[in-house]
Amino acid sequence: MTTARDLTPFTGTYTIDPSHSQIGFVARHAMVTKVRGAFNDFAGTAVFDAANPEATAVTVTIQAASIDTRNAQRDEHLRGNDFFDMSTYPEITFVSTALRVTGDDTFDLVGDLTVKGVTREVTVPFTYQGAATDPFGNQRLGFEGSVVINRKDYGVTWNAALETGGVLVSDKITLEFEISAIRNA
């Protein structure tokens, strides 16, 4: 998204299509490999006005219990008190506070990320992937972005020391977003 591009056709309200989007994460495990996971139940909207792109409003709500790392035992551990305490904090939320155009097809989305009852500001760099009209007549926009956060900043502090040094779970977690948004009628 660039200031040179005519953004007028993108003005509108959009809903994230969860069946064609992914909100995932990557953590280092045992200091030697990466474990990837995703949240399978989420919803979000974005309101964009080409005349004032900086006032873009994005909200995303993730059902924390939908965490999926392809390992049922690990997922149950993540849902419990050691990590997300999902019975007390069932949702992870993001509410944007600003959008800054940074290049021809890039922008930073700034907002408040709340995990386990702790809210911190994050800046997620995104790349615009394109627009298309699907076979059902829906106008779609695609975006990809990622940001690294420290899980301890959100009160997610459990870990185990390794005999060889280091820890079982990295403090730094990469959040990954692959978003397909449909313009509301």
From TrEMBL:
SUPFAM superfamilies cross-referenced by the UniProt entry: YceI-like
Coiled coil stretches, renumbered: none
A UniProt-annotated Pfam family: YceI
Gene3D superfamilies (UniProt xref): Lipid/polyisoprenoid-binding, YceI-like
Limits of the Lipid/polyisoprenoid-binding YceI-like domain: 13-182
Segment forming the signal sequence: none
Transmembrane segments: none
Similarity remark: Belongs to the UPF0312 family.
Protein name: Polyisoprenoid-binding protein YceI
Native source organism of the sequence: Streptoalloteichus hindustanus
Species lineage: Bacteria, Bacillati, Actinomycetota, Actinomycetes, Pseudonocardiales
